[in-house]
Every structure is written in C-alpha cells, then in structure tokens.
# Entry
Amino acid sequence: MEEMEQSLRELEMWLQEALAAADSVAAVEALRVATLGKKGRLTRLLQNLRHLPKKERARQGAAANILKKTALHLIQTRLSTLQKAELDASLAAERIDTTLPARPEQMGRIHPVSQTLDEIMAIFGWMGFTAVEGPEIEDDFHNFTALNIPPEHPARQMHDTFYLPERADGKRFLLRTHTSPVQIRVLETERPPIHIIAPGRVYRRDSDMTHTPMFHQVEGLVVDSTINFSNMKNCILLFINSFFEKYDIQIRFRPSFFPFTVLSAEVDINSAIEKKLMTCTSYEGWLEIIGCGMVHPHVLNSCGLDPEHWQGFALGMGVERLAMLKYGIPDLRTFYEPDIRWLQHYGLLFMDVPSVFGRR
# Structure
C-alpha cells in the first residue's frame, strides 16, 4: 500500500520535471504517451490496483484518478505554452513589412467603374451635392408609380424588368431599374432645398456591347423654390468639363421625353470632333451620355410637395458608358469578366486620386 502511494508521488514529480524540460510540442506528446498511453506508467499503476484489497483499492484508485486529472492539466498547460511560443516564432519569421511598396508586377489595380464612380461623386460633392443610397429591391410605387410611369409603360413589362415572386399579401417587388426611387424616398422624408446624387447598381433585361443586365447609375436631384432649366444646364456643363478634364468639348441638349420630367433633354457630346477624348470605338458623331429635365409636377405631388412653390431638375448617367468614353474601353461586357489581364490593362493605380482639377 505504501509502495503504491510512493509510486504515485514519484510519478507526479517525474512528470513535472520532464514537462519543465520539454522544449517542443513533440516532446510533450511523447511524455503524454509515456504517462497515459496504453503502456504508460500511470496506466500500469491503475492496472495493478486489482491486486489490492477492495477497501484499499477504492482509496488508492481515487488517488490515482486525481493524479490522472493533474497529469492531464499539466500536459495541456505545457502544450499550450509551447504552441503559443511556436506560433509567435513562426509569425516573427514570416513577418511582412506592410510599409514597403508593392512590387510593380504584383501591384493591384482600381477597377474603372470604381474609379469613375469616385470621380463623379468627387465632382458633384465639390458642387455641394450629398450622396444618398437606397434599397436595390424596390416596390412598384417607388420604382414606377411615384415617377409618373403609367401601368401600360413598356418599362413595367416582364421583358424589361426583373420581377421577384409575388408575396402572400399580393405585393410584388422588383430589382430597381434606375436609382430614381432614391430621389422619391428623399422627397418623402426631407424638405427642400434638396441637392443629392444617388449612385448605385440597377438591373434591366438587356445584354450587348453597350448594355448589361446589371450596371451602375448616378442620378442627381435638385429641388428649391427658384430652380430653372439654366441651373440644370450650367450644372451639367460644369460636370462634363470637369470629368473629361477639357473645356472645349462640343455639347448639345437635344429635346427628349421622360415620364418623370417635363422639359426633358438628352445631353450629347461630339466624339467625332473631340479626337483628344479616349473614345471607346471607331464610332464618330454625337453620343448621348446624360438624360435630364425639370421634375414633373406629378412627381412632386406624389411626394407631398406643392409644384406651385417647389420646382427642381433631375439628371442621370450610366457610369460604365462614361468609363468607356474616358478610358477607351470598347465593350461594356468586359467590365464584368473575371480576367485579371483586362484589369491589369485598363485598371488604374491607387495614386489616380479623383479630383475636380484632374489627377493629382
């Protein structure tokens, strides 16, 4: 009996000394096997308990089980300490100095869409506009009805719009076809004067060299008591000159029609004459880049504003088309192809900071 107790004390002391001397995870694992394995020292002592009297077996068994728990705790503690030390050593050996400049062949590129969005927002921000975002899944009222788009309008049809399954309450939502719903939500919650732009993704059933099912738009809205068409024209001219970094671009305002504006126009630039512009194809002539107009009184009425007192203008542009023009990209569909070579060719460096005065 005394021999068993002595063996348990010696085993505990031996394990403590051996663990203190262990300098690796592998050494600790070897000690675990030597102590608690099938042929380990503590396992053999537990097996010898069957030779003791029943009363003494219970007492010595309790002591052996306590030692077993102590051994497990000691092993796990030493193992955790060594694992942390090995991890720290590995991190120190593999440390990367993030302050070093990237190697040119591995330097990342900014996507032209991201760059163009940043440039547009920088210019309008300089002019006093605030950027506002809204949900990409919209209801019929905000996407169509509030914008004076009648039920029979082609834009509401299945061939042009991505509709979601009808809900249990009969409501049917859709992927927004423009960012104009953001303007409606702002008019519903804020009082004029309002100067906002609404950048974001929009969705339409269309795909060719100049259209994709998902693309980016930026729309602007100004509402005040003294806004007129001349204010809108000056704003657009300033934007175009700042964006293309040229002040001699031939621009024309061509009468057009949009359900949500009255006195509507499309803004064209002459890509045949402006040879210094990086036109995206061999196309020559007038090219439409912006749609605009004075906000329709019905739109103001639907948002609770009196059109006799308030008036404003709205404008919208496709980000990809502007990127194609400015950076000489021939096919809009390539914007969304996972080809790193394309991004290395057309992507911009991180130092190409958007600025209304050109790139710094």
